[in-house]
Structure formats: C-alpha cells, structure tokens
Design a protein that fits this description.
The chain has 5 helices and 7 strands. By secondary structure, it is α+β, with helices and mostly antiparallel strands.
C-alpha cells in the first residue's frame, strides 16, 4: 500500500474548506481522479453516507462504493472500495492566516487487476495528481488571490 500526501495554505477558515470538500458538484471539479457521483441527491456528503461513483482509470470504466467515515468542520475521511481501495483524508487545520489543508490518499489493490490498477493510481499520484487537486481546492476557495 502506498500513501500519498499534499498540503497547501488557504486564507479561509476550516469550515469553509470542509464545506467545499463535501459538496458533490465541487468534488468533481478538484478530485485527483475524474469520477461521476451516482444516485446521490444530497447537498453535502455527511458522515455515514454511502454513495456510488463511476470513473475511468487506465482506460477502464470502474465503479466504487464510497463510505464517508467522518465529515465535520475540520476533517473528511472516506474509503472508496472497488477494484482498488482508496483511503482518503482531507484535514483543514486553523492557522493565523486561515487554514492549512492536508490531504492523504492510501492506495491498495488485491488480485492481478487490483494490483495493476493500484500501480496506475500510484503513477497518477506520483505525477502530482494529489498536489494538483489540493491546488485546485485552494484556487476555488481563493479566486481573487489566484487572478
């Protein structure tokens, strides 16, 4: 299992960060791996939610069940289970300037296909997909500063 981490600073309070992190339409804009949320009508992901997502990885269409373990004003923790397993944590820590946003994604796969897809995911994350996602979060939260 490989674990990837990234972080950035934003000039907003942690609850604004987590509001963006749990908004389904916003997630699709900054997620490191493109996906579509299926059969979810809520306005925000909440602790205890289970949702299905569909996306593409290494040229394959894949579905995952996502379990939201925690979703509060400072942290979003979820597990996506499908051909690979993704353990994801986003945390917003209050600082004098606003918040420090920390992201962590652990990737694992079982069986031949799972290991191959986990390696493809690791390659995307090694190439900077998580850093790009954290940067996109910051740009969305601070559009005036990015201009």
């Amino acid at each position: 299992m490989a674990t990837w981490k990234a972080q950035t600073r934003v000039a907003v309070v942690p609850d604004r960060v987590l509001a963006l992190l749990t908004e389904p339409d916003a997630i699709a804009r900054w997620a490191p791996i493109a996906f579509e949320l299926m059969d979810f009508d809520g306005e925000r992901l909440l602790a205890g939610d289970r949702v299905r997502v569909q996306g593409s990885l290494a040229g394959r269409s894949l579905e995952f069940e996502v379990a939201v373990d925690e979703a509060d004003d400072e942290k979003l923790v979820l597990t996506a289970t499908g051909p690979i397993r993704l353990e994801v944590e986003y945390r917003a820590v209050a600082r004098d300037y606003g918040s420090e946003v920390r992201a962590s994604v652990a990737v694992s796969g079982r069986g031949l296909l799972g290991r191959l897809l986990a390696q493809a995911t690791d390659a995307l994350l090694a190439a900077g997909a998580l850093r790009s996602a954290v940067g996109a979060i910051a740009r969305e939260l601070e559009p005036a500063l990015a201009a």
